[in-house]
Design goal:
- The complex is a heterodimer of chains A (about 900) and B (about 130).
- Chain A is built from 35 helices and 11 strands.
- Chain A is elongated and about 115 Å long.
- The termini of chain A are far apart.
- Chain B is mainly alpha-helical and about 130 residues long.
- Chain B has 5 helices and 3 strands; from the N terminus they run αβααβαβα.
- Chain B has a 3-stranded antiparallel sheet.
- Classes of the chains: A mainly alpha (about 900), B mainly alpha (about 130).
């Protein structure tokens, strides 16, 4: 037994020595043959060891040494003759990785949003700028990273710098893709130039898939998650290379650390875990390590790795049951490791995982310091847990019908919904390869279909080739695709898509509020990788066809020279997606910032603005975090149902109005009102409950005297609104953003509302000057003078009047529709006054912003539209 | 019609190279199997070192005489790291031409009575 162990040790040492000797060969030669030579040497060495002859062993070593010495000159001569130093550099994987990084970064920077964009970007920017806390689960890693990065980068406005951070991570993800594909294709042979070109094609395809691209040129968390996914996958291949050595465990620790760290950015990154485990199991089963002891170490490490990963997912989801199961798994994995004699790996794994997830401590610390943005207020361990578990959002189980509340009364998911969800995923898949074609047809445009079919077929061809070349990586990528694509469709259980299924579910409220393609981003990256390998398969197939003996000599040679052109397929999505993915040009580039500017400028100094959330809120936060109009108190109606938001409103200090922000209000700007904006105590806030009024309730605030009848539903946000209105009469003007909509309560207050530009102002201290009012188009009258000033002298439009607004993306289209309505109101007001010239000018702008006017969908026809004169006014 | 490179330009082959081609003539083999086959067939007279073997393999692969292959189905699943090599049609033609060249030499040696009569095909009919 001892002899056997010492022989194994001696063989290992001999192989290591031989490996060192092989370093004398040129790098290109080593890349091709070093591993094979070491393996062959090892087998020959073992045969000699069995003979137990010292003389034989000595002869063996001499022969091997002479074998190397005798072939060195030839291999060096060949390397120098065929590859210069530059040639060697170009052939190296590092060069390819850097080249892909720079190339993809160039594409992303060329299409980078210059400023804040819609949806979560504004919120993340506000959090980054103020070291604050965005919506649960808080994304502390992103906040920290972006905050440090934006303070280091010396150029561009703050939003641009953070956008650039996303692009850098996107490009780094593409570089990791290059490494993975290049290694996979070189696994059983020398990959060479063809493998490098294929890997570059795969990286380009995965980077230019529409959703990937669109998430890489604005402030978002997804590219950092995608980067983590690809790096962890690349590390898995490196683990395979170093199996049986101490380095393998270091690599596993690195993967665990990255996974744990990624929780602080987005849970998407954790989805690589199961794929890595499948990969490792496949490698360990199909190519077991020679020594039993090494095999035991390896299997126990894999078991522990998998269990910790499940633990991470359980922590990320805040799922107690999963947490218990994972903890049991971790204990079992630890026991296995201890049994295999490996005490250090479990301890180190626990340590790096704990360090990785420790970014969440940031939330706890910062929340206590009350930053500008402090969603969920995780300043206690209980509220921190609530943030991590996303308790703020209604739960949704995979078995639920997403149109109804989760719980015993939920009717359950139906096959029809599942079909719509699958269709929704296919719709997003269809966008990835030629999104610039028929942007007006978001669902399955016929002209996009050839591109979709071509890249689908290439993906299958690539998967087949990978199956033959490197089956372990095949399973890695297929598992990753299934989990991040169809798996997420099943798990997320979305409502019917934003732009499909209206024949079955006509109500807008039954659909997702926006397109959700970004959730499936990693699956599109993976398909891009497979399609890139598929191009190689096509290339080889064509080459074989022309190389067959019956091919004509001249035509065959010509064809052989032109076949590499098939790799040009890799830039097709780059070209076809560019018009749709570009955020640097056109009106949408700066629309979110201008829209936020317009909304904030609608409000007089120290005003309170009620907003609907997301797009009429986040860009405003981003501007306020930069110091623009911080005097405006933004009250987000959906968040007003949470106790922490109401407390923060109360505790928010009054920020001074800067006359330079809005000179037109400067002369009439009042003194700063005293804090707080409301006076509810913590106990009163905690006691707030939604209710149906048990009896008639007379609401009085200044000149407002309204009876809310018995049975009127009042949500907490309504109670807060009533309180804010009441406590701020004569202290702060109150506005309701037009885009927030009006519920029962606000409709009852309708007699006190006046439209001023993009918002309704609530007149409580006094009645409005009726001389300034004209009938509005949305119910309340319009303040003609104020609205005219805002629309024509104050608001910014990001160049919307220079483009066809029908061609902008759906989110921007909603904004243009909102912007058109005050113009429509003005047009009507001037029309009724008989000022046809001004009516024409306003109607022209309204119609440009919303070409379906004067009868936009979803709105009743404005009274003046019935007039015969109106047709003459419409341009 | 393209005939590919002329086999005669590749001759004569060095002994290790010819041995490797012979080892691959009946089946695809991995590196260590080639070593063993060469040693066994030569009765221990030719023992290749690993360095000599792979330098030769590199030249043969680059020259299109052998190629990497997927390996026998059964063995492949058990040892994924192993690289197998197989003769290409060019390699087979070259090996045949070298064998014929050597056979011609043997006939010449026999004709000059340096060695005894041998039972090989007549020259020019290989």
């Amino acid at each position: 037994m001892t002899d056997r162990v010492s022989e194994t040790t001696a063989a290992g040492v001999a192989k290591r020595i031989y490996g060192v000797m092989l370093r004398l060969y040129p790098r290109s030669y080593r890349r091709r043959y070093a591993q094979q030579m070491i393996d062959t040497f090892g087998e020959a060495q073992e045969a000699h060891l069995l003979r137990r002859s010292f003389a034989g062993t000595a002869r063996f070593w001499i022969r091997e040494a002479f074998g190397i010495a005798g072939t060195l000159p030839r291999e060096w001569w060949r390397a120098v003759r065929h590859r210069t130093i530059v040639g060697n550099l170009i052939a190296s994987r590092l060069f390819g990785t850097v080249a892909v990084f720079i190339g993809v970064l160039g594409v992303y920077v060329a299409t980078l949003a210059p400023t804040v964009t819609f949806w979560d970007a504004g919120e993340f920017l506000a959090a980054s700028r103020s070291l604050g806390i965005p919506h649960p689960p808080g994304t502390p890693l992103f906040t920290l990273l972006s905050s440090v990065w934006a303070r280091i980068v010396p150029f561009g406005e703050y939003a641009f710098r953070v956008n650039l951070l996303t692009a850098v991570f996107g490009a780094a993800a593409a570089a990791a893709v290059y490494t993975i594909v290049s290694k996979a294709l070189s696994h059983r042979s020398d990959g060479g130039f063809t493998a490098s070109v294929t890997a570059a094609a795969a990286a380009m395809l995965s980077a230019s898939a529409f959703t990937v691209w669109q998430n890489a040129n604005e402030t978002e968390v997804y590219m950092i998650a995608a980067f983590a996914v690809m790096v962890i996958a690349a590390l898995a291949l490196r683990w395979r290379h170093h199996r049986g050595t101490p380095k393998a465990q270091w690599i596993l620790l690195g993967q665990l650390y990255l996974g744990a760290l990624s929780i602080g950015n987005h849970l998407l990154a954790l989805l690589i875990g199961p794929a890595v485990v499948v990969f490792m199991v496949h490698v360990a089963r199909t190519n077991p390590l020679p020594a039993l002891e090494d095999r035991r170490h390896e299997w126990s490490a894999i078991a522990l790795f998998g269990s910790i990963w499940v633990l991470l997912i359980a922590v990320g989801l805040g799922n107690g049951t999963l947490l218990t199961l994972a903890a049991m798994g971790v204990l079992s994995g630890t026991a296995l490791s201890f049994r295999a004699g490996d005490h250090r790996f479990p301890m180190a794994a626990a340590a790096v995982t704990a360090v990785g997830v420790s970014t969440y401590v940031f939330l706890y610390i910062r929340a206590g310091l009350q930053p500008f943005l402090n969603e969920g207020d995780p300043s206690t361990w209980e509220s921190l847990l609530a943030v991590i578990r996303r308790e703020q959002y209604p739960p949704r189980l995979p078995t639920d019908n997403p149109l109804f509340e989760s719980g015993p009364m939920n009717p359950g998911r139906t096959l029809q919904l599942l079909w719509l969800q699958t269709l929704n995923y296919l719709q997003y898949f269809d966008w990835q390869w030629a999104a610039g074609v028929r942007t007006d047809q978001p669902a399955f445009a016929v002209l996009r279909l050839p591109f979709t079919l071509a890249f689908t077929a290439l993906g299958f061809a690539g998967a087949r080739m990978l199956h033959d070349r490197d089956r372990s990586v095949f399973w890695l990528l297929v598992t990753l695709f299934v989990i991040t694509g169809p798996g997420l469709v099943l798990y997320m259980n979305f409502r019917p898509g934003f732009s499909i299924g209206y024949d079955l579910y006509p109500a807008f409220a039954d659909h997702e509020v926006r397109e959700r393609d970004y959730f499936f981003l990693v699956s599109f990256q993976v398909w891009g990788m497979l399609a890139g390998i598929g191009i190689l398969a096509v290339y080889q197939r064509i080459r074989c066809w022309f190389e067959r003996p019956t091919a004509s000599a001249g035509g065959g040679r010509w064809a052989l020279r032109t076949i590499p052109a098939v790799f040009g397929l890799a830039v097709v999505p780059l070209i076809m997606n560019a018009p749709a993915a570009d955020r640097a040009r056109g009106p949408t580039a700066e629309l979110a910032r201008d829209w936020a500017y317009d909304l904030l400028q609608t409000v007089e100094p120290y005003g309170v603005l009620f907003t609907g959330g997301d797009n009429d809120t986040f860009p405003l936060w981003a501007l306020q975090a930069e110091g623009f109009r911080p005097d405006v108190t933004v009250v987000v109606l959906p968040l007003s149902n949470t106790d922490w938001f109401i407390r923060q409103l109360r505790d928010k200090p009054v920020e001074s109005f800067d006359p330079e922000d809005a000179p037109w209000y400067a002369s009439a700007a009042p003194e700063a009102p005293p804090p707080p904006v409301h006076s509810w105590s913590d106990q009163e806030i905690a006691a707030l409950r939604p209710m149906a009024l048990p009896s008639d309730f007379r609401f009085r605030a200044g000149v407002i005297d309204e009876v809310l009848p018995r049975g009127t539903p009042l949500f907490i946000q309504d109670l807060l609104a009533l309180r804010l209105i009441q406590e701020n009469v004569g202290r702060r003007p109150v506005y309701l953003s037009m885009s927030a909509g009006t519920n029962d309560l606000w409709q009852r207050l309708g007699d006190s509302l006046v439209q001023e530009g993009l918002a309704f102002r609530l007149y409580a201290r006094e009645h409005p000057d009726s001389a300034r009012l004209a009938p509005g188009v949305l119910g309340p009258p319009v303040d003609v003078e104020r609205t005219d000033t805002l629309l024509w002298d104050v608001y910014r439009y990001a160049g919307l009047f220079d483009v066809d607004t029908l061609e902008v993306d759906p989110t921007s289209r909603n904004v243009t529709r909102n912007l058109s309505l005050p113009y429509l109101a003005l047009a009507q007001a001037y029309f009724l006054e008989g000022d046809d010239e001004r009516a024409r000018l306003n109607l022209a702008r309204a119609k440009h912003l919303e070409p379906t006017l004067p009868t936009p969908p979803g709105l009743s026809t404005p009274p003046f539209a019935d007039s015969p004169r109106v047709t003459e006014l419409i341009p | 019609m393209s005939q590919g490179p002329s086999v005669t330009t590749l001759l004569p082959l060095s002994p290790p190279v010819f041995h490797i081609l012979l080892a691959l003539a009946d089946r695809q083999r991995h590196g260590y199997a080639i070593l063993k086959e060469v040693e066994a067939r030569s009765g221990g007279q030719v023992v290749l070192s690993t360095g000599t073997l792979y330098s030769a393999i590199r030249r043969l692969v680059d020259g299109g005489l052998i190629r990497e292959s997927a390996g026998p189905a059964g063995e492949r699943a058990t040892d994924e790291r192993r690289r197998y090599y197989a003769l290409t049609s060019l390699g087979r033609r070259v090996a045949r031409a070298e064998a014929k060249r050597l056979a011609d030499l043997l006939h010449e040696a026999a004709r000059k009575r340096l060695i005894g009569p041998i039972a090989l095909d007549a020259p020019g009919r290989a």
